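In keeping with the milestone schedule agreed at the kick-off meeting, the structural modelling team has produced records for the first pair of proteins. Each record is given below as a sequence line and a structure-token line. The laboratory manager (R.T.) confirmed that both were archived under the project's standard naming scheme.
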Amino acid sequence: MKYGISLPPFGDHADPRYLADVAREAEAAGWDAFFIWDHVLFDMGFRPIADPWVALAAIAMNTQKIKIGTMVTPVARRRPWQLARETVSVDRLSNGRMIFGVGLGVPAQLEYGFFGEDQDPKIHGQKLDEGLAVMDGLWSGEPFSYSGDHYKLDEVRFLPRAIQSPRIPVWVGGTLNKRKPLERAARWDGYCPLKDGGMVTPDEWKVAMDSVNQLRNSDAPFDWVQGGETPGDNPAKAAEMVKPYEEIGVTWWIEGIYHWRYGLKGNDPITPEISEAMNERIRQGPPKI
């Protein structure tokens, strides 16, 4: 099992320089990946938020080995050809360390509605699937054209290619065991199930794994990605929490380093004390078994 961090680039962490320093500390502490959220707005507090691609560029330049990426990017909110450029640029800048997490984007009002865009999740799902098909074609570096319901491209060729081959890994986030996210995940490189009201249990994982494996038509490596929170000041308890997931074949544990984990409520401002508590959990290192 590998261990990553998922961190909202809000408040103090909205400063790319600050975020890059935190990522360097994460690498030194033994984490295997550093993921940031991709939002333009998140709540009615309208708190500071970093652009993920500027932030990831800074992180790439300030680290050496740790995987980096988004957790997750709402592809429907962006132009897929622009995302193709941005992801390849980060992959090359990081010497092949980019992982691309994708999803629909929530809350829909904040991600889409404030900007006059359609809030229908079915449309978002269609654009996500078409957008990934477009990105995959552009990532190939070969002549590529596309005609779908939402996107149309005349034949073009995007260079340079990413460093990673056959492509930048794509992890799909979605509600646990919903058919569409399961089908989508089976076409790509990883599955990050989300469950309202708590963590996905090992037994629920077994069902999800069976469902995805039945839908896959490839024997390429595939990642099973579990999110959770472990106590950094109690390594034995942390390892005990993670062990059942490793035993069933989950490949990544993603530690949620969230502001509300440390006392933030609603639209309250993010204090320096909350930011430091987040950073301290990162410095405590992963819940390795």
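The second protein of the pair:
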Amino acid sequence: MKRKAAILGSGNIGTDLLAKMMGSSVLEAAFMVGIDRDSDGLKRARSMGVATTHRGVVGLQEDPVFDEIEVVFDATSAAAHLEHAPMLREAGKKVVDLTPAAVGPYVVPVANLEAHLGAQNVNMVTCGGQATIPVVWGVSQVAKVHYAEIVASIASRSAGPGTRANIDEFTVTTARAIEEVGGAARGKAIIILNPAEPPLIMRDTVYVFCEGGDEERLVEAVEEVVRRVAEYVPGYRLVQRPLVEEAGPLRIPGEDEVKGKLLTALLEVEGAGDYLPKYAGNLDIMTAAALRVGELIAQGGDR
């Protein structure tokens, strides 16, 4: 029997997640929460037979189905999640947070999928983090990563109000997760909203300065994590073979100058087109990863 789930947020991310959840063999989209009765997300949910409210999280709390909800996906904003988290914790609900609020531990499936399945609240970092941290983590498995920097470029059209409101949180949360999950001693994140017409798919550049590991091992590590991410995001791919160059010396805070290798990986993410057009790969990688984590949480970690 499917476990019941609720989605907070009827914007781009919440609606794309709803579309994906309708095909889940583990979770049932039982409720969708918004604040605008006429939002496209709530209209779509109602047309699919999913219960809805436009009264925010209060409307969910007051609905009888709330007691049956096992997993709540929060696709609102960082500020809103800081308000939702205590209430959901008190109600005993498992939470998958798709905002950059980072109330709970960061989760990037290929790196630490199973490490935090017992946590009450897990954070999916950001779309840029889901796309790039696997590369940093892959390199960290075969070399010491002193510094990693990522640049995520997404189509302006795919960035809704929630994404735009979270730009500052995006950079801070992604940088921290590059360190905590990716294994880099220092991390930096940059996001670009690309206004090009027609819209371009998500493109990411990952720079990793590392010490140790030969070129072939580094490249193989990156290619392997890209293959694993593509298992749940088919449109995720390398643009070309990662470039590895001798680099340095680089001054590491608290350490001497070090020489090493600079790995550059160019990625692109094409969406599945479940809700928005295929250029919105930033939504696709976020919602696909969140659904996978939510399913495992509902199953108690069983694959």
